[in-house]
Write a structure and sequence with these properties.
alpha+beta, elongated, Immunoglobulin-like, 3 helices, 219 residues, 13 strands
Length: 219
């Protein structure tokens, strides 16, 4: 093999192995919404492992302040440890909540492009309000209640986002009714990948070839 051919092969092996592959199975902007009553029966979280849960009161600083409670939880839902994230909002009927108060949406940024998402929702009680849409755009997940809105005295469906993540972290969510407030919630961390042994071997061969060529040229 000529020196030029040796250099080309060694460099090609190093470059190919060091350039990350593009993310596959990245979901489209519109996330599919399924009905968990038909998929999982009357206990949608049965068999899941609860990892963390929190809830907090919030007040939307609109002209007529809207008060309520926001709940969030994260579960492991299969043997591989993949995570499902649950979100729900409830509006109080007590003052200062006016009769026409509503929640239009909640949203969170910082969702890594490598995270795959499938959505579902379920009514835990009669009268719960279903989301009219769940969208993903440029790392932002948004759950909409617009037809109908979540009004005073009402609770949303339990919104579930199934992911390929196995780890999670805390992040902020925005709740809006025209005005907005910020609450804490859970989001997935990007899956980490480690090189396979065969990949490491090929990388080593390429680097060894470059080292041998350098030593040869010095001699």
């Amino acid at each position: 093999m000529t020196r030029l051919s040796f250099v080309a092969v060694a460099l090609l092996m190093v470059v190919v192995l060091l350039v990350p592959a593009s993310a596959s199975n990245v979901p489209s902007n519109q996330i599919n919404i399924a009905n968990l009553w038909t998929n999982l029966g009357s206990n949608p979280l049965g068999g899941y492992t609860l990892l963390n849960v929190s809830s907090a009161a919030f007040t939307l600083p609109s002209l007529n302040p809207v008060s309520g409670v926001y709940g969030t939880a994260v579960f492991s839902y299969d043997l591989a440890g993949h995570l499902v994230f649950a979100y729900q909002v409830h509006l109080d009927t007590a003052p200062p909540n006016p009769p026409n108060a509503d929640v239009q949406k909640i949203s969170s940024g910082d969702w890594d492009p490598s995270i795959t998402v499938d959505a579902a929702q379920v009514a835990l009680n009669a009268g719960d309000i279903a989301a009219s849409g769940i969208n993903r755009l440029n790392g932002v997940i948004t759950i909409y209640w617009q037809t109908p809105l979540v009004k005073a005295g009402q609770t949303s469906f339990l919104e579930l986002l199934y992911t390929n993540a196995t780890e999670y972290t805390t992040d902020t969510f925005g709740i809006q009714d025209g005005a907005g407030t910020t609450v804490n919630g859970f989001i997935p961390l990007a899956p980490t990948t480690t090189p396979e042994p065969a990949t490491l071997s090929l990388l080593g061969i390429g680097l060894a070839g470059l080292a041998a060529l350098r030593k040869r040229s010095q001699n």
